[in-house]
Amino acid sequence: MNSFRPTRRDLLHAGAVLPLGLGLPALLAAPARRPKSCVFVYQYGGLSQLDSWDPKPNAPAELRGPYRAVPTAVPGFRVGELMPQLAARADRFAVVRSMTHGEPVHDRANKMLLAGATVPAADAPAFGSVVAKLKPTAAAVPPYVWLQKFGGGAAPPDPTYLTGGFLGSSVAPVLVGTSHDDNLATPGYRVTAFDADPTLAGSRLASRRELLERLDRDNPLRPEQRRAFDVLTGPGVRAAFDLEREPAKVRDRYGRNPLGQNLLLARRLIEAGTRLVGVVAWCGLKAGEKFQSIETWDMHGNGGVGIFEDGWNGLGFALPRCDNAVAALLDDLEMRGLLDDTLVVLVGEFGRTPRVTPGGSRVPGRDHWPRCYSAMLAGGGIRGGAVYGASDAHAAYVKDAPVSPEDFAATLYAALGIDPATRLSPDGFTRPASTGVPVAELLG
Q: Which of 210, 297, 302, 333 is most exposed, with minimal Cβ within 10 Å?
């Protein structure tokens, strides 16, 4: 019989969980590894690869932009200068520089990203719903949570990501943040999704459960029904969603903006047992700005803000906030012993054109470009410090090792311990989780 010998990290983590009632004896009896989970961060609108993960310092000025390429913790790997914190942590993550597909329209490209398919079916479930189906949680928390609803023209053409697609509503996410003024960075904001219904007291809810069990003695409540009751009646889920339990300095470290606070909540949820947290990487507004869109990364020069400016739709505003928040998440997960078992994904639906052009307001911008873009993967068994694939001299087309939406999804499933060929349909033969091939070089 195999015995579990706790590592130093396990013992340090024990101190962090003691207040939750999980003392050292419980830790010693626990399995050696947590089930894997994922924080999937959507850079909604499409991040410019040239100004972030794939800089081209030798390209003409009208292509390369104003930002320098700076060294990282990995020799020979350079990134844009607006990401100094992630540059210092490059040994913890991998970058794919050869993401590619042919769809330049936001809503359709987002559907492809969510489904992990070049031609997704109308009822295709989102990645998170598949993970919730194949890797359910035993904890009394939702298995799948979505933080900040897609909005504007970049949203997928239907709300499949909120319904569970053909897998059904049992694997649909709990949604937090339904509009721009409904977000965790709002002072005093509180998640109310799990508050007791004032018309349904706890005793009445317990009575309903007892009645159901009496009516169905021969067919006890299904596990998902029991978990639903536990979530509704237990204090654990409300505690997990309560950011006020975090020290002010931790909230400040992530950044007092929608992305920073959403990533902090994502960490709390992963720690509590949620399998997948989807986060829309909306960075909020600069002081004094009026709301226009949550499509932070769609940097055409929208609303008079140039792509290289310090405003809601400019890299000078958004990328440092993203750099700060994602670096804080990686540090926090590692400190708590969670990074090895938590896959962190940072990607948009496509990239941006190499050539800088005047936008709708005649200020500099980059247009949609799906032919070549980048993604970041960290934790969850991903090989830290890896740079996979390559673009041409202008980051316009893939030069080496193209990664399709199918292959990207298959890689994520493999990192989470899910066979991409797993059949999702009741017949057991059709609808695999993914038709792609995992990129073995990214998997540790």
A: 210
DSSP type of residue 104 = -
Structure-token match 């992630």, residue found: 86
CATH of 36-193+248-442, one of 3.40.50.300, 3.40.50.11540, 3.30.360.10, 3.40.720.10: 3.40.720.10
Most confident among 28-32, 91-95, 188-192, 286-290 (mean pLDDT): 91-95
Q: E strand or H helix at 347, and its extent?
A: strand 342-347
Per-residue pLDDT for 379 more than 80? Answer: yes
Average pLDDT over residues 345-370: 92
Q: Which residues of 329-344 are buried (b: 16+ CB within 10 A; e: fewer)?
A: bbbbbbebbbbbbbbb
pLDDT tens column, 304-344: 899 999 999 999 999 999 999 999 999 999 999 999 999 99
Residue type, 111: K
3-state secondary structure 260-288: HHHHHHHHHHHHHCCCEEEEECCCCCCCC
Q: Is the pLDDT of residue 195 over 50?
A: yes
DSSP structural state of residue 432: B
Mean pLDDT (the chain, rounded):
87
Q: Are β-strands 93-99 and 387-388 bridged in parallel, bridged antiparallel, or unpaired?
A: parallel
CB atoms within 10 A of CB 102: 10
3-state secondary structure of 18: helix
Residues 349 and 338 sit within 8 Å (Cβ to Cβ): no
Check whether 434 has a pLDDT greater than 60: yes
Listed in sequence order, the residues at least 6 apart from 222 whose beta carbon sits closer than 8 Å to its beta carbon are: none
Distance CA 141, CA 34 (A): 16
Are 41 and 296 within 8 A, CB to CB?
no
Closest C-alpha among 416, 425, 411 to residue 131:
416
CA distance 204 to 266: 32
Residue 357 dihedral angles phi and psi, to the nearest 5°: -130, 160
Which residue is associated with the tokens 């006890």?
220
- Determine the residue type at 197: D
Residue 251 CB: number of other CB atoms within 10 A? 18
In whole angstroms, what is the distance from residue 423 CA to residue 134 CA? 10
If you write DSSP's letter for every residue of 401-422 in order, what string do you get? --B-HHHHHHHHHHHTT--TT-
Is residue 326 classed as helix, strand or coil in its secondary structure? helix
Residue 400: beta bridge partners?
390
**How many CA atoms are closer than 13 Å to the CA of 51, on its beta-carbon side?**
30
Boundaries of every domain in the chain: 36-193+248-442, 195-240
